[in-house]
Amino acid sequence: MMDLTMESFNVRCCECGKRITIFKSDLDIEVSCYDHGDNCMGIEIIYEIQHEISCPKCGNDIEITFTGNEYPEGAYNDDEATISGAEFIERPSMGICYQDEFDTDEYAVEATGIRELIAQISANRDLIYDVTSREFEEIVEQVLRDEGFDTHLTQSTRDGGRDIIATKTGINGKPVVFYVECKQ
């Protein structure tokens, strides 16, 4: 899901120069989807926020629009902010907000077992041929996590070729999402 990355931002009225604070909680987001068909990239999700206010000092009409999209779903594609009647003091942006979908305590126990398996494979590389496909995915996920990625292991069946979703913050501060398909 995409959302504004700031809880509030400031604009300056073009007519009188009044500084106005706008809070994210006052904004409504509209979500629409576009299916690109059989290109195997999935659905594009488009987020749009439109907000109109009047300057409390001079009554000038101010219109603000934010758009962002995920394509494929879960991957940041781009975002844009436009304004009329005022200017951004600091330009807000949209980003992907991830939510944990698993029990972290249970996950920690599983990770310990995978670390042990990784240690055994490091000592005897032939053991890699004895792990199940799911264990192989868990090993790859742990290696990515050890390299600083935030990871999510997808369900074991019907995952659309996405065994692991790995995210890392890029140079520009935006998250970069990698879809990993594991082949043993």
Commentary on this structure:
With 184 residues, the chain is an alpha+beta fold. It has two helices and twelve strands. The strands form four sheets. Strands 4-5-6-7 form a four-stranded antiparallel sheet, with no helix packed on it. The protein has a three-stranded antiparallel sheet with strand order 3-2-8, with no helix packed on it. Helix 1 (104-123) packs across helix 2 (133-146). The protein is elongated and about 75 Å long. The model is unreliable at 100-109 (pLDDT under 50).
**Amino- and carboxy-terminal Cα gap:** 31 Å
Tell me roughly what share of residues is in helical segments.
Answer: 10-25%
Number of helices in the DSSP assignment: 2
Morphology call = elongated
H/E series, N to C? EEEEEEEEEHHEEE
Name some characteristics of this structure.
alpha+beta, single chain, three-stranded antiparallel beta sheet, 12 strands, 184 residues
Strands, helices and their partners?
Blueprint: E1 2-4, E2 8-13, E3 19-23, E4 29-35, E5 43-54, E6 61-70, E7 76-84, E8 86-88, E9 94-96, H1 104-123, H2 133-146, E10 150-153, E11 164-169, E12 175-180
Helix pairs in contact: 1-2
